Inverse folding.
């Protein structure tokens, strides 16, 4: 019995000592936690990496610092330190930042990876594969393409309604659940869609909001140094803004806040275009990702007026693909549940005729939106971000048959048939 | 050492321990690489073949009650053949264990212990396995009984936990690279069942001989089910083109599981289960190598040999220099060695031994009728 106990204790002690980090290399005090990483094109086509590092509570206010050829700035209420380095590759940049900060950067709490539009249009697959292979990075880390530089985006991301930037990053992605103005893309979904042969990649789109009067609102590729800015313009821009990424302008051209809205569309790993916030709603509907959103439809009762509908998914969107010699014929059947939010005297919500008129206009409006979304992705971007290829792949018995069909090329010539049925349910609390 | 007899559940647990280790390591990703979207179909096909294989060996074994494959080889070819075949079997088990320990240690080093020398990780395993084998079959069997439910739980949890990442259409095109590639070339995927070698040894260890059939069929079917779950999770989550080359393919899936907004990284829990599971697997493997050695040499005290075998495993595992070499070992050497040794050579020996027995029986009958 004693002998057995001796062996068991020996194993336990041996394992405990061996596996507990005997060199203290992973002591929490030696680590600095990165919450966002920005990828830009630097000078001489080098990579410019910006690390947003969380400052532990109790430390003084944060600042942005520069490494080799980097920028620096300060933000009064920031709980983060932004470090920019120029490097040849991601891992060498990480190493350089480790050296500058004199703490080991840990990526396990990274919430956002931001690519500048310029870099994304050159291709991001190498970076995505490298990041996916990084054991510290979580696969649910969000991926975003910024119309401004990634460094500017990170420097501008100061939370107003949150104490912690990390929490702020978590919350801004949840806005898409009820606004329908963007679609979350994680490291894992981007990685798989780049590798998939029946769908293309899409990511969130973001930009730096500036106050009115700015000449260049997206300011991509510009001088990325940011300066002290004590206030932010706060809330997001209205849904009526028709700009491609939903950005607003600024008074002095200085970045004040970040806005996330719209979708960046990729063909394989290269950015080919963007969808606006309004164009994101049909994307969410056809991909069955829509939780809820508010849509304004033209009023059938008085010209120039709009009726707001709160729409939410009623049943699964049914997509089907028919293949013939002229190309794929894609049919989409959408059924949505909605309630009327606008309360005016133009119509009577208890009247069956009035409700049917609204249903008809709403159905036509959404059908047109979905059709224009399909037309744009198929003809302009030539990119199947909806993933309609997966409704065609089962018609092919072998992989070689599927590859020979060449879905990405055929998708450009696809014809679309969209049927939308909007059901209006309860409307007013008072009328 | 062999005085302890296994009950039905213990028998199933031992066979499953050997089989499930394949799921934990690179087998699911290797299967997906070979047969792409047709992997699920291929696994069903290979399971049917394996069941037929088992029913054949069950019939053949029933002619040799209380014997394992080494005893049968002695009956077939005498002591010299028994010695050669036994040594080959020991070598097979030791090489197999070395490949597995190296693969798992590489995986651990990659995931959690990047600052620790891989030799040190392997050494810990080897020492623990050696100590466990000193306690004999009873201790190993009990460890298996504890760890198998946890291992099964981890596989099922990974399957359902990854559900949000699934794209079910990745199972299409249904025939993958083609009918020939799926059903003819794909037969080589039977190596994923090569852990069934343990059935050749377990026959005399069971309390009731009649339980051999139950142990075999239950193990094959349940392993096949869990292999299907693991491969399905991998196939639905990751495109075939980008499929994983990770030494621990299940970890790739475990890593992406999140439970709500609060529990976002639970991969360490899986490692906590998989480490003792690998200990159980290696201990079971070495136990059968020791059993064979004892049969060959009639040695009385086997405990000294345990450490020799552990040292051999450690040294073989150290010979491999880098991941490409490990991949060749696990995907080529191990694959074809297992098919040849477990499914071809052992079956041939069994069939020849049965023919010899039948001939001897006929000759004996003729001799008695002549008398």
């Amino acid at each position: 019995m004693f002998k057995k106990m001796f062996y068991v204790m020996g194993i336990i002690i041996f394992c405990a000592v061996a596996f507990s980090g005997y060199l203290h290399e992973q002591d929490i005090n030696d680590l600095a936690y990165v919450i966002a990483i920005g990828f830009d094109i630097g000078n001489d086509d080098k990579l410019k990496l910006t690390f947003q590092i969380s400052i532990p509570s109790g430390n003084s206010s944060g600042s942005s610092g520069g490494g080799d050829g980097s920028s620096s700035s300060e933000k009064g209420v920031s709980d983060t330190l932004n470090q920019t380095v120029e490097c040849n590759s991601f891992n060498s940049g990480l190493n350089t930042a480790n050296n500058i900060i004199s703490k080991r950067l840990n990526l396990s709490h990274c919430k956002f990876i931001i690519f500048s539009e310029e870099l994304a249009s050159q291709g991001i697959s190498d970076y995505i594969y490298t990041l996916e292979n990084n054991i510290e990075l979580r696969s649910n880390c969000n991926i975003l393409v910024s119309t401004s530089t990634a460094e500017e985006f990170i420097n501008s991301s100061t939370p107003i309604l949150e104490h912690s930037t990390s929490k702020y990053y978590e919350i801004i992605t949840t806005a898409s659940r009820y606004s329908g103005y963007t679609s979350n893309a994680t490291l894992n979904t981007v990685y798989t869609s780049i590798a998939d042969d029946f769908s293309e990649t899409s990511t969130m789109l973001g930009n730096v909001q500036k106050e009115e009067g700015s000449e260049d609102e997206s300011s991509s590729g510009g001088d990325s140094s940011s300066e002290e800015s004590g206030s932010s313009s706060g809330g997001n821009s209205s849904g009526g803004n028709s700009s491609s990424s939903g950005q607003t302008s600024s008074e002095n051209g200085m970045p004040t806040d970040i806005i996330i809205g719209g979708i960046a569309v990729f063909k394989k790993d290269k950015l080919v275009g963007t969808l606006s916030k309004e164009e994101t709603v049909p994307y969410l509907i056809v991909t069955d990702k829509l939780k809820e959103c508010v849509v304004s439809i033209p009023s059938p009762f008085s010209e120039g007026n709009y009726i707001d509908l709160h729409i939410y998914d009623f049943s699964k969107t049914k997509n089907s693909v028919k293949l013939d010699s002229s190309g794929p014929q894609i049919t989409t059947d959408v059924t949505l549940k909605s309630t009327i939010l606008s309360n005016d005297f133009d119509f009577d919500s208890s009247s069956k005729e009035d409700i049917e008129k609204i249903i008809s206009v709403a159905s036509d409006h959404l059908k047109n939106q979905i059709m224009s979304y399909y037309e744009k992705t198929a003809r302009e971007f030539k990119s199947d971000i909806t993933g309609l290829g997966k409704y065609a792949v089962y018609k092919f018995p072998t992989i070689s048959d599927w590859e020979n069909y060449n879905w990405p090329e055929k998708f450009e010539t696809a014809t679309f048939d969209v049927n939308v049925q909007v059901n209006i349910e309860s409307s007013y609390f008072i009328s | 050492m062999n005085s302890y007899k296994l009950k039905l559940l213990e028998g199933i647990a031992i066979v499953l321990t050997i089989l499930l280790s394949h799921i934990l390591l690179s087998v699911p990703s290797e299967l997906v690489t070979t047969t792409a979207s047709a992997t699920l179909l291929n696994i069903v096909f290979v399971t049917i073949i394996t069941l037929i294989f088992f029913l054949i060996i069950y019939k053949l074994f029933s002619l040799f009650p209380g014997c394992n494959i080494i005893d049968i080889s002695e009956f077939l070819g005498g002591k010299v053949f028994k010695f050669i075949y036994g040594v080959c079997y020991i070598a097979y088990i030791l090489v197999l264990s070395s490949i597995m320990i190296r693969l798992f240690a590489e995986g651990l080093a990659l995931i959690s212990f990047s600052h620790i020398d891989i030799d040190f990780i392997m050494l810990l395993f080897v020492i623990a396995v050696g100590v466990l084998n000193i306690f004999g079959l009873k201790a190993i069997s009990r460890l298996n009984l504890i760890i198998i439910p946890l291992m099964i739980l981890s596989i099922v949890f990974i399957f359902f936990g990854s559900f949000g990442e699934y794209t079910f259409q990745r199972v299409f095109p249904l025939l993958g690279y083609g009918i020939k590639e799926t059903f003819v070339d794909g037969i080589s995927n039977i190596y994923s069942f090569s852990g069934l070698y343990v059935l050749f040894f377990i026959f005399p260890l069971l309390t009731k001989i009649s339980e051999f059939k139950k142990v075999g069929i239950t193990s094959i079917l349940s392993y096949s089910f869990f292999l299907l779950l693991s491969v399905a999770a991998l196939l639905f989550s990751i495109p075939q083109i980008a499929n994983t080359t990770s030494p621990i393919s299940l970890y790739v899936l475990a890593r992406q599981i999140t439970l709500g907004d609060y529990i976002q990284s639970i991969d360490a829990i899986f490692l906590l289960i998989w480490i003792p599971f690998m200990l159980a697997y290696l201990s079971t493997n070495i136990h059968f190598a020791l059993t064979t050695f004892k049969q060959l040499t009639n040695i009385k005290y086997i405990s000294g040999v345990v450490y020799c075998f552990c040292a051999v495993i450690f040294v073989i595992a150290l010979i491999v220099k880098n991941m490409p070499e490990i991949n060749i070992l696990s995907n080529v050497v191990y694959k074809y060695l297992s098919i040849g040794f477990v499914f071809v050579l052992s079956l041939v020996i069994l069939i020849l031994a049965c023919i010899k027995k039948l001939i001897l029986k006929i000759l004996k009958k003729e001799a008695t009728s002549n008398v």
Notes: Chain A touches chain B at residues 4, 7, 10-11, 14-15, 18-19, 21, 23, 25-26, 108, 135, 138-140, 170, 188-189, 191-192, 194-198, 387, 390-391, 393-394, 396-402 (CB under 8 Å). Confidence is low (pLDDT under 50) at residues 67-76, 214-255 of chain A. The longest helix of chain A spans residues 352-381. The two ends of chain A are 83 Å apart (CA to CA).
